[in-house]
Amino acid sequence: MQPSQRSTSSGIRSRRCRASRTLIWATCPIGWAWASDYGTADDADEFRALLAYSPLHNLKPGTHYPATLITTGDHDDRVVPAHSFKFAAELQAAQVRLFNESNGTAQARPILLRVDTGAGHGSGMPANKLIEASTDTLSFLSSTLHLEP
């Protein structure tokens, strides 16, 4: 399920290394391997199918998207980090700001991007990086869901 397809189904999302720019993924370093499974934008029918479920291309400005944490590794050669950078920026731009009457400010549910430095797609990460990533993800979930310790 893509967050742009069921944006109101829950109040929170966490994404790790997801290809969100489906129209260009076949041109990415390992994208050629996905072409037989997902198709490419070079074929008209496949282009329409890719466009239909592309998270990036289905964002709707002015939508109440859930709080979202997007994580990636800066050396990911399977899902190029640019997918995450672009998706985070476009999701932030599309997000509706809700007016807070108590302090007179406009606030949006957070759309955050976490980049693991010196990390790839996720498998083979050293224990300290796994602990840091898990801590950040659990902290985001706890804070967003207003959980008490």
Reconstruct the topology from this structure.
Elements: E1 12-16, H1 35-38, H2 44-53, E2 67-73, H3 81-94, E3 98-100, E4 105-107, E5 111-116, H4 127-144
Parallel strand pairs: 1-2, 2-5
Antiparallel strand pairs: 3-4
Structure description:
There is one protein chain. The chain has 149 residues and is α/β, with parallel strands linked by helices. It has helices at 35-38, 44-53, 81-94, 127-144; strands at residues 12-16, 67-73, 98-100, 105-107, 111-116. The strands form 2 sheets. A 3-stranded parallel beta sheet has the order 1-2-5, with helices on both faces. The protein starts with 11 loop residues before the first strand and ends in a 5-residue tail after the last helix. 23% of the residues are buried.
Oligomeric category: single chain
| Total helical elements | 4
Query: Could you list the spans in which at least 5 consecutive residues all have pLDDT below 50?
Result: none
**What is the string of helix and strand elements?**
EHHEHEEEH
